[in-house]
Write a structure and sequence with these properties.
Layout: H1 15-21, H2 28-40, E1 46-50, H3 57-69, H4 82-88, E2 95-98, H5 109-119, E3 129-133, H6 141-152, E4 158-164, H7 172-175, E5 179-182, H8 188-199, H9 205-211, H10 215-223, H11 225-241, H12 246-257, H13 262-286, H14 289-309, H15 315-324
Parallel strand pairs: 1-4, 1-5, 2-3, 3-4
Bound molecules: zinc ion.
Zinc ion (ZN) binds near residues 70, 72, 78, 81 and 84.
């Protein structure tokens, strides 16, 4: 089975288009598995795509929808017909994408009710109505309960695709009714080779290092070199600050975080946690039993802080706490 992925000139693309149709790097086995289900007609009525943020889950979902809708290359998706293009741009009348509204950190029951009303209609031109709920862990409780009704009434014309990096935050009632597809984070070498293949270009070393497998993040950084530079500077400061004595950490952290807005702090926090994860894994492999407990305790704290981070009004304070309590 040949996977059809457009060869794109990255330098000529605008940001919106990149998010809509960038080439998928990695996930070959997952795509093959899904295409086989399309080909054999053994499609589930609900899928849950689980895996790290920005590694390509939504792109694979769109590829899956293309394969289901495409008339030119049925069961595969030609990638270039009007239907495939509409799916890639997420404007196909039978594809309904739900994400948290702009500026909101959750998906409301109203959004789910609206979706359900649309799903009761006959598909406009495709064989199915497909709902794609991205960041499904952000469904408010009443919204998740409402969605459960749709899951409990499977129909041969409706398919739900839920996407999340943290499936454990979804109610078990939703998990048990969905076919869970676990996405593997693309490996460093696969990313490097992928970029050579599609764009004939190599990536900056630090970009691959800080991506931690997030191909979507790399696309974002290539489009925003200033943002990338600020992350490089921030990570440099992070690795410096955690080895300093406590009184110096207080001063440096105040200086680094000064005048940074909520969104920037969010980006920094994510980056710091990815770094922390790798550092901790390394530390757990290297050191004695007593120290391992310290690392585990710190990691537990970091996890708690990160789960509060989305909602808290004082992100600066949480970030400081993590730096100050980092075990030497
Ligand atoms: Zn097509």
């Amino acid at each position: 089975m040949k996977l059809v992925i457009n060869r794109l000139d990255f330098s000529k693309m605008d940001t919106n288009k990149i998010h809509a149709v960038f080439p998928i790097i990695g996930h070959e086995k997952t795509i093959q598995l899904l295409l086989r289900e399309v080909e054999t007609g053994s499609i589930s009525h609900a899928y849950l795509f689980a895996g790290r943020d920005q590694i390509g889950k939504r792109q694979v979902a769109l590829k899956f929808v293309q394969a289901l809708f495409c008339v030119q290359a049925p069961h595969i998706g030609c990638g270039v017909c009007p239907s495939c293009e509409q799916v890639a741009k997420q404007v196909h009348p039978d594809l309904h994408v739900v994400t948290p509204e702009e500026g909101k950190t959750s998906i409301s029951i109203d959004a789910i009710r609206k979706l359900q009303a649309t799903l009761t209609l006959t598909p406009y031109s495709a064989p199915y109505s497909i709902a794609l709920i991205d960041s499904a862990h952000l469904l408010q409780k009443p919204a998740a309960n409402a969605l459960l009704k749709t899951l409990e009434e499977p129909s041969s014309k409706k398919i739900l695709i839920l996407i999340t990096p943290v499936p454990q935050r979804l109610p078990t009632t939703i998990l048990s009714r969905s076919r869970i597809i676990r996405f593997i984070t693309p490996k460093r070498d696969d990313i490097l080779q992928g970029f050579y293949r599609y764009f004939d270009r190599s990536l900056p070393e630090k970009m691959v290092q800080y991506a931690h497998g997030r191909v979507g993040w790399i696309y974002q950084m290539l489009e925003n070199p200033d943002e990338f530079q600020s992350i490089v500077d921030f990570m440099q400061q992070c690795t410096t600050i955690v080895v300093k004595p406590l009184h110096e950490r207080v001063l440096i952290s105040k200086k680094i975080l000064e005048k940074k807005d909520r969104d920037v702090l969010g980006i920094y926090m994510t980056q710091f946690l990815y770094w922390l994860r790798e550092e901790s894994l390394q530390a757990l492999g290297d050191i004695g039993r007593g120290d391992k407990h310290m690392v585990v305790r710190y990691l537990q704290k970091a996890l708690l802080v990160s789960s509060d981070f989305v909602y808290t009004t004082n992100r600066r304070m949480l970030m400081e706490q993590l730096w100050l309590s980092y075990p030497k």
